[in-house]
Design brief:
single chain; 239 residues; alpha/beta; Rossmann fold; DNA polymerase, domain 1; six-stranded parallel β-sheet; 9 helices; 6 strands; disordered N terminus
Length: 239
């Protein structure tokens, strides 16, 4: 497992408007969605049911209690906590075997690190999976994390990002939500980010997400530079 580098952060550029970046994890930072989908299908099959690709896509980005409820409706005769634990255990095993970072994610994290722009993780996965993923990174890119077990209401509600803003505000004086970028890949996630008042950026991955005046869209993080993020924070979006 790579050792995280804790070198001092270089001086922050004076011209950037960005005060911080909040990252989704599953599907945005790394591609865990195939692990989640396979775990869901196996669990439903264990109880004699069928789980379609469309049903799996509908759960992308949702809070784990919502996913558990959907699996119960599909015939999984387990309690919510048991379902979450079973799914998470399979995904943990998958991440231990192999990590597929999303294109451009590590490069953008490194650029933000070099510019001393703080990053936080805002994920609906719970603490064990978030901790494992962050251990795989070559450096300590994230100043803090918000996990699904830290909020009463998950995505698409704004609560996870509002908590992320609270944590970021402890690091950044005079924090302005519009000067914070939130990067997401799913419909629930981008709705959560936008509802919190930050500048929401969609990098659609496995599940289609409609366009909206409430967020920006890029095709990929590959080649995305801080200047482009800065322009988004300057432009804002319509409410």
């Amino acid at each position: 497992m790579p050792t995280q580098n804790c070198d001092p952060m270089p001086a922050r550029p004076l011209r950037t408007k960005i005060q911080g970046v909040l990252w989704d994890m599953d599907g945005t930072l790394l591609d865990t969605e195939p692990y989640w989908m396979a775990a869901e299908a196996r669990l439903v099959a264990e109880f004699g049911g069928e789980w379609s690709h469309a049903q799996a896509l509908a759960l992308v980005g949702n809070a784990l209690p919502d996913a558990a409820a959907a699996l119960q409706r599909a015939g999984v005769a387990l309690q919510e906590r048991e379902i979450i634990d079973r799914l998470t255990a399979e995904v943990l095993a998958g991440v231990r075997r192999h990590v597929d970072w999303r294109p451009g994610a590590l490069e953008l994290l490194e650029a933000l690190h070099a510019a001393s722009i703080p990053c936080g993780l805002v994920t609906m996965s719970e603490e064990p999976l978030a901790a494992l993923v962050l251990e795989q990174l070559p450096k300590k890119y994230f100043a803090f994390r918000v996990t699904g077990d830290m909020v009463a209401r998950g995505k698409p509600h704004p609560d996870p990002y509002l908590l992320g803003l609270d944590k970021l505000g402890a690091l950044v004086p005079d924090l302005e939500p519009a000067r914070v970028i939130g990067i997401e890949d799913s419909a629930p996630g981008i709705a959560s980010a936008a509802a919190s008042g930050i500048t929401a950026l969609l990098v659609e991955h496995i599940a289609p997400v409609p366009d909206s005046d409430s967020w920006h869209r890029v095709e990929s993080l590959a080649g995305l530079e801080i200047d482009a993020l800065d322009a988004l924070a300057s432009t804002g979006v319509s409410a």
